[in-house]
Amino acid sequence: MAVIIYPPTIDWSYMRQRPQNLMFEFARNGHQVFYCNKKQLEHPCLEKVAENLNIVHNLDKFKERCLPVVKASGSPVIVWCSWALLANTLKDLQPDIIVYDCLDEFAEWLPYEPEMVGIADIVFCSSDYLLGRITSQYADKKVYLLNNACDFKRFSSDTSTVSKPADLPETAGSRIGYIGAWAWWVDTELVQKVCAAFPQHQVVVIGPNLGQPLPREYPNFVYLGLKPYEELPSYLAFLDVCIIPFRINETTMATNPIKAYEYLAAGKKIVSTALPEVAKMKPLVKIGGSHEEFLEHIRASLQTEHENPDQARVFAEENSWERRYMQIERILSVEVAGFNRPVTFNTELCNMEDNTFMCLHAVADLTISSSKPTTNLNFFPFLIGRTNKAINRYLLKFDPTGMSGQINKAVLTLFVEECDSPDKLKCIEVRRINGSWHEELTTWQTRPKTGPVPVAATQFYETSGWLEWDITPLVAEWAANPATNLGVELKGSKDTLPFLVRGVNRHRNDCFSPRLNIYLNNG
Predict the structure, then answer these.
(1) Residues 6 or more apart from 337 whose CB is under 8 A from it?
(2) pLDDT of residue 337
């Protein structure tokens, strides 16, 4: 059977979405799945959460310890990626096949898409909009439509005996509910109008708040936050009308909402704005082409019984994740040699304690900028280089205490999200810091002195992905004499064109945080 690796994009336990559901289906059908978490831990490297399904908590150790076992098994390795930003990191996973699962239309992701599609062997698209765009822009690619779906068994289960969740307030009226992220694509004005139009009913929102203001000024607005996926059916059971109040823009025109299928599986009355993918579900979903029509559909839904809940459930069952996997299997069985060939290997080998490799995350980091000479920027993504307005440098510290005499090689790595001056040669130097500093207090004006000669330097052209510097002698010195460990400063070289690198600082605590990979002596 094939091995499926899903590179770090979203944590396994955060909002069950398409990636988690598809990986469940691969595992249920006998494929060995490695789902890489964004948040990283030193131990354990792997966590088995279901048969054939492993969460990778330490990607570096996985690549060092487990990937050789996987490759030696002879199973085809499929890297299933849904985040274009990761395109030039996928080669590290040694894939035989790369699948790009194109899920959304976010403007900030589009610059990375050409590289992602370029290296992909197969592209799946979650909506007709995305399918049309990808096929028109990349005519030579194998592109397939793969809509979203639902966990039908979970959401269609009998909830007649389920107790009302304790944090769902009592109400004399009905409940109008939305389950999903509260983000910029939600039409807040429309939700405010719903609250105002139906003051006798509750408007219930369940899901994480991604920075969008909540209309708490309305007494009938109830925000319950993110809930475990397993608990959502019990909340759905107490919602009378379910809504999808999205703005209409390029992002939502391309979306195929999972929540629509989940609402249908639960047999709920549904009102949505005029999203193309949801409009295809009429008459099972009422479509409001304007705010007024949206409110009128809610009013009618509150006053009438569901026209055909059984038909809604039949539609949802036809659009389950099990059915989506069957689509995938038909395609990959043809495209991937050995996709269904029985092959097994011992994943316990991957969890063996590795005494030759350590991955250290930073204990302190800080961006300083000449444009804000008295400001501490420690929680900002790191900025390195020059612009026409500022010089930006990055201070970083690790703790290799206890490794004296054991270090064979030490490699500093940073993940670059974005870099100005494409096609121009750039260089980042690593310089030893010779003075004390504090990540919560240091500013450009109070920055510590650094060594006059770089410890290491890396030249590169613009691209997302990892940059590396071999700083073995310096780390060995830190391990032998911790008093010398004041960290390093990363700065743009004066010999190359001014540029700016944006990355991810350690406070994100995920796979893309800066780290120090240390290879220890075998003895």
Answers:
(1) 76
(2) 92
> pLDDT of 161-215, one tens digit each?
999 999 999 999 999 999 999 999 999 999 999 999 999 999 999 999 998 999 9
Q: Left (φ > 0), alpha (ψ -120 to 50) or beta: where does 381 sit?
A: beta
Do residues 38 and 9 make contact, with C-beta atoms less than 8 angstroms apart? yes
Count CA atoms within 13 Å of residue 316 on its CB side: 28
- Mention every residue, 6+ apart, whose C-beta is less than 8 A from residue 132: none
DSSP summary character for residue 231:
G
Q: What is the pLDDT of residue 379?
A: 81
DSSP state of 246: B
Per-residue DSSP letter, 63: I
CATH value of 154-310 in 3.40.50.1260, 3.40.50.2000, 3.40.50.720, 3.40.50.10490: 3.40.50.2000
Query: Of 512, 495, 516, 493, which Cα lies nearest the Cα of 504?
Result: 512
With contact defined as beta carbons under 8 Å apart, do 224 and 205 qualify? yes
Residue 60 to residue 187: CA distance in whole angstroms: 41
Answer yes or no: pTM beyond 0.70.
Answer: yes
